[in-house]
Each structure stands twice: as structure tokens, then as C-alpha cells.
Amino acid sequence: MLATLVEEPFSKAEWAFEEKYDGVRILAYKEGETVSLISRNGIDRTDRYPAIAEAIAKLAPSTLAVDGEVVVFDPQKVSHFQLLQQGRGRPQYVVFDCLHYDGRDLRDEPLSARREALELAVKSAPSPIVLAARMASHGLAAFQDATERKLEGVVGKNLSSRYTEGRTTEWLKVKVHQEDEFVIGGFTEPAGSRHYFGALLLGLYAGDQLRYVGKVGSGFDQKTLRALHGKFQRLIRNDSPFSAGVDERAATFVSPKLVAQISFTEWTKEGKLRHPVYLGLRDDKDPRDVGGKA
Q1: Potential cystine with 135: which of 117, 142, 239, 272 (Cβ 3.0-4.6 Å)?
Q2: Are 133 and 189 in contact (CB under 8 A)?
Q3: CB-based contacts of 70: which residues, under 8 Å, 6+ apart?
Q4: Whole-angstrom distance, CA of residue 125 vs CA of residue 169
Q5: Helix (H) or strand (E) holding 131
Q6: How many CB atoms lie within 10 A of CB 159?
Q7: pTM for this structure?
Q8: What is the mean pLDDT of the chain?
Q9: What parts of the chain have a pLDDT lower than 70?
Q10: Which residues are annotated as catalytic?
Q11: What is the distance of C-alpha 16 from the center of its chain?
């Protein structure tokens, strides 16, 4: 179940508000002693997060399915995708929904009932399982708190909503700062003392067309430059994947198979990113699902 992005903070009666976490979405399944951790695009990540799988296995219900986000927190308890992607810190699993509990399919139950089941399932959960904390019941107060704490944003959820697959307006998210996923469609030649490449060429899908939204040249260390350049070698192509021309004389184009997490200050009037910074690759996202303002 995926939240819909809205531009402004809001408040609604009979809605709950939670912190928007900056990590990797994971569904955890427990059947007896068998545990599976599955990413949003259906990849098994059990081996990547063994401590989380072991903790799920220790929970009391014999069968269980919970929804959550694998994150790494900084010392101020703010999650950052970059910390998780770079392996800087201990991954924790923040759980916020329960789909199945001890033989009961809860997807048609209201969120309020699913939350009760979730709290029961994880009330004595061993670390690194964390129950998603509810924020202020008034959405504007929750957003103000998120702004002061420099969180990624807030997710509002209708307490009567059922759990349905796909994008929904029963869950709404509003971001405190600008950070999103973009498709990599090419790179530029390095200049000065930099090696491997200069900047990444970024795009967003609008229907079947990949719209160019600018380039990012900051946020890379030498290790990251080398690793990304290695991934690009099997993707290089002669023609541009973008729907319109890219004004970069020294551009090398690649097939749009990789997704990057980017922070930025704002969108320009021309629909380009201002002051973008590379944060990491997203291997849990399908490039065709990466679309938005362009």
C-alpha cells in the first residue's frame, strides 16, 4: 500500500499521523520458523538483513505478515537513506502495519484494528524491530514537529482504511524537504582531478517518455564514482533515452535501468533540479515507477 504525495500539510478527523521514514520498504513474512523479507519490487532481502529476520522469527505469532521500512537512524533518531546505503550504522526495521496475524488475514480490517494487532505482535519485540511512533493527532502540529526535528516528512493515514495494494489516497504523505528518486540516463566526462565521470544525467517518466530534469555532480566519493562507472559499462548505448535533447556535449548515454536517490532544494521554472546531491542507488525501485514533476 503506497501513499500519495500532496504538496501541503493537512489535518483530517479520524486520521493518524506518522513519521515518514527514509529507508527501504520491506514486507516481512513469518511462517513457523521460516522468515522472508521482501522488497517493494519483489526481491528477497532476507540475507541482506539477517538480524532483522532473526528478530522476526522470535515474535510470538506462528504466522505473521508486517509492513515496514528498514532504516538507519542518526544520533538524533532521524532516518537517512544515505546512512543505510553506505552501511554506516545498524539497520533497524520500523513496522507500521500488520497484514496477517496468527492465521487471520487482516487486510480487510480497518487500520485501527491492524495497528492493535501490530502492537500486540511486537510489544516484546527484540531489537532491531521498532514500532512506528505516532505523531500529534492534528496533522499541522505533526508537520511542525517533523520540520523542527528535520524529518523527511509526515504520512497521514485514514484509521478506517483497508490495506489495498498500490497507490491510494487513504494514505497521504507530505515532505518537509525535497528528496526523491530519479532515473539515470547518462553521464558526462570528468573534469579537473575527478575520475570516471563528471555528473549523472537524470530523468523522470511521464507515461512512456523519460523527461530530462537535469544533472547531479555532487555527493560522490572516489569509491562511489568507481562503482557507478563499473555499473554503467554494460548499459552504454548510442542513442539518448530521454524524450528531448540533452544539451551536454560530452554526454555518454545509458539504458535507463538504474534509480538514484537525490536531494535538492527546489524545482526551477524550467522543470530542472536546483542544487541536487547524490545520496545513493535504489535497487528496490523499478525505473518505470519513477515519475512525477518534470
Answers
A1: 142
A2: no
A3: 23, 24, 26, 45, 49, 52, 84, 91, 92, 93, 94
A4: 31
A5: strand 129-131
A6: 16
A7: 0.77
A8: 94
A9: 292-294
A10: 20
A11: 20
